[in-house]
Recover the amino acids of this structure.
């Protein structure tokens, strides 16, 4: 086991450098003044390049071959070795110079996006975005050549190990088979009912934050190992022992930040629950983005938009903002939190129309990467896509193709994992409810401990010991499908059919 | 110049990694939850060890020798090369394993200090502090052997390049020759006068922060390139393009945080003013801690405790806290800001009694490092020293030997630079006043631009192109002495002698 032991030491160092990079990334989004951006881009690029150099050192290839021949490894060690090989394969497929250029270009483009979005200035962002796309395409082609797969699959594999566009096409096709009709039925049903009462703002940002902290605590977030801060684009960053989530507060609508906080808390609980014995080893990391997103959506969509959660949350919200009256009763809050309405902004979308946002982005990024769509045509293609999929068109790019940080920051191939995650969440939650009778009633008492325990055992503590599909089969008895997601939407959003 | 060019590339990478480490350090002090400490210690240690490995690679030694033989280098490049050699000499003197152990031990001890100080628990801190001291001693001995100097001088050289204990002994001896008598005269004079009127609290922390931001802006702090945050121990961190200063707010005494902010702003202006053309090169770094401290003390003590500054600040303070009356008049504020009173806490000390705090720590750390004093005896030795030097004794270790972060965090040999800095500040400020007639009157209008311009030219933009002594001689015409500091104290604190 000598080769494995040396690899384990080397990957521990890589893991710690990755942690340092994660802290820099959090700081960039949540703390850094704008003027620090160029230097920060160079700092992050330097650490990225070092990681790349250490990972692609010839000795690592030799050690991997030697360790793969070692017999005494147990299952976790063998899974760890397989994840090491996976990282190594990704790293060796791309030259170090390209890694550095992409890191710098993405940092600069992300900073430019911060001002381009509010200024509705897609044209201003275009040169930097072109550079990110060109370098991403180079990266995709290099990896595709090395792995013997399609360039898009090579990018997807970075976020969703083993993911393939063909499988996504099938699942998204099934969604498109029932979602438009379901959405229309839900909207018609909503029109027949009186509208929920609005919650009148403004809502003090300090009180919003305090409410968020209270809900995070109830869900099991440990503030000795994490923080809540503010950033342009909410995210979960940091490291398993110091998980940093962010939100953005809207003084006119507290539910937006609140649901965002609940969502990121789901991500945070996953990171925090990763197997402590395997910290800073590849097998100790999160499995991939569909599982990661399933954890945030399970908390936000499955648990915290339930009727039971509204009963728990209503008195806390009334106390937080000093309000009362019928709008603040659980039933009305629940109706607000399950309101369906086609909208322009993905992160504000309800769970019924969300997949359409993802399908749009998935198709556009595939077309952009394939060269079938020029970036200059993106705003028009975006508007056409929104019209076709959701029947609405953004008045400008701010709420159109500039709304997401993903493409400017270099995260191409990431978007489909959101909807894979939504489906995974529905399937996992259905299994949890089957296995834990009365689970949803716990939420009305603000008790999420049985849910967290189940997730710890069935998802979090497995790290990357198994594939996403294996995790799902072990926890739910079947691979990923659309059935549980469809049943969930129908049960929550459609009136009971008369027997 | 091929060797020099390659060195320059390598040191740029080292500089960027050092920046990343600085951001981690800032985060540790200002943001990180306690539970993140063990992982953070390992992250920082990993980056430190990498820096050490890259700096001590055999190729660097070869390149240094080759570059030192190159003829075409200009003065800046030659100074840069000399600083590279200096770093290399420090790094190669100590084995990598010791660097890592010291980094981990210091991070852990610093975290333990955070809780030990409020708990008055020196005994609880002792094991971790012993480890830091033992490893520091090992480091000092290794460097002393390599440089052919005394172990204490080897530590001092890390903070004050070229500094020697013998020179400090002389200067500190001169201070001791006049300070005790001067202090007594000031105290007697104060007793003869009516006491300044107290400023009645409480002072809203948000208003304190807003006042701090206003003063920082007036002094020339650029918030596109920096931040103000809160930490246990105020400091200036971050990088020249993103300078992070911290303070701690006392709701009962706003002047404590305010003067702290002004002090750290002095450090920040220096960092921000370092030569941009030499970013991430050794010659582009701050010269050393006596110059660094001179910049904070010049702003805090020389400029911002002046009568003119009180005239500028008084209306701002009244507006910030909604107060009025005789206590809030410039004259009273000035008398409060120049009040002399022997106290327990170094960072709260006035400039007359401050050197006694430094002399105590300097003697104690020399004795601890030399093995003449055991750490277990530190609390007693501290009390004895305070009695002898300042005539007061702390009731516990919280306000005694636990008050400073330096020893727990591994910064041994640092303390004397505070008083060297005070003397340097007095000498620089006297020269600036000579060269810029009416300079102090600018401050009454909140105009610090002539002062900042002078400091940029005479100190900041020189980076490490010259030694501290050269900088002082160029700017003031003479090497460091006690004369200007003495004249400053007598002019400010003693009644005009009748002619």
């Amino acid at each position: 086991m000598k080769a494995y032991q040396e690899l384990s030491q080397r990957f521990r160092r890589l893991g710690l450098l990755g942690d340092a990079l994660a802290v820099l990334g959090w700081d960039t989004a949540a703390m850094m003044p704008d003027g620090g951006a160029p230097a920060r881009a160079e700092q992050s690029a330097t650490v990225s390049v070092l990681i790349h150099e250490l990972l692609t050192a010839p000795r690592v290839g030799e050690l991997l071959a030697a360790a793969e021949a070692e017999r005494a490894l147990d299952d976790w060690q063998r899974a760890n070795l397989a994840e090491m090989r996976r990282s190594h394969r990704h790293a060796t497929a791309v030259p170090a110079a390209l890694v550095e250029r992409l890191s710098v270009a993405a940092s600069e483009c992300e900073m430019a996006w911060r001002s381009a979005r509010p200024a509705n200035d897609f044209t201003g962002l275009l040169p930097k975005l072109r550079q990110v796309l060109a370098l991403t395409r180079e990266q995709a082609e290099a990896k595709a050549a090395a792995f013997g797969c399609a360039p898009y699959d090579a990018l997807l594999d970075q976020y969703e190990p083993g993911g393939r566009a063909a499988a996504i096409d099938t699942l998204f096709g099934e969604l498109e088979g029932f979602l438009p009709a379901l959405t229309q039925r839900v909207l018609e049903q909503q029109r027949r009912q009186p509208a929920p009462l609005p919650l009148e703002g403004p809502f003090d940002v300090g009180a919003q934050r305090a409410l968020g902290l209270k809900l995070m605590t109830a869900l099991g977030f440990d503030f000795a190992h994490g923080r809540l801060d503010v950033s342009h684009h909410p995210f979960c960053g940091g490291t398993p022992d110091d998980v940093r989530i962010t939100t953005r507060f809207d003084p006119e609508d507290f539910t937006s930040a609140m649901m965002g906080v609940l969502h990121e808390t789901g991500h945070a609980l996953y990171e925090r629950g990763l197997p402590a014995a395997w910290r800073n080893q590849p097998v100790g990391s999160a499995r991939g983005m569909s599982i990661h997103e399933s954890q945030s959506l399970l908390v936000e969509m499955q648990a915290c938009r339930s009727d039971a959660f509204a009963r728990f949350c209503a008195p806390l919200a009334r106390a937080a903002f000093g309000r009362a009256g019928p709008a603040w009763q659980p039933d009305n809050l629940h109706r607000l939190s399950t309101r369906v309405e086609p909208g322009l902004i993905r992160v504000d979308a309800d769970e019924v129309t969300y997949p359409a946002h993802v399908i749009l982005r998935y198709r556009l990024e595939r077309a952009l990467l394939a060269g079938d769509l020029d970036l200059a045509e993106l705003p028009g293609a975006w508007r056409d896509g929104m019209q076709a999929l959701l029947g609405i068109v953004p008045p400008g790019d701010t709420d159109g193709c500039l709304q997401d940080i993903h493409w400017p920051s270099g995260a191409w191939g990431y978007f489909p994992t959101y909807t894979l995650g939504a489906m995974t969440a529905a399937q996992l939650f259905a299994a949890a409810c089957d296995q834990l009778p009365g689970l949803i009633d716990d939420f009305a008492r603000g008790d999420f401990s049985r849910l967290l325990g189940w997730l710890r055992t069935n998802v979090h503590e497995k790290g990357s010991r198994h594939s996403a599909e294996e995790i799902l089969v072990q926890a739910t008895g079947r691979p990923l499908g659309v059935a549980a997601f469809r049943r969930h939407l129908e049960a929550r959003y459609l009136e009971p059919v008369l027997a």
In short: The two ends of chain B are 64 Å apart (CA to CA).
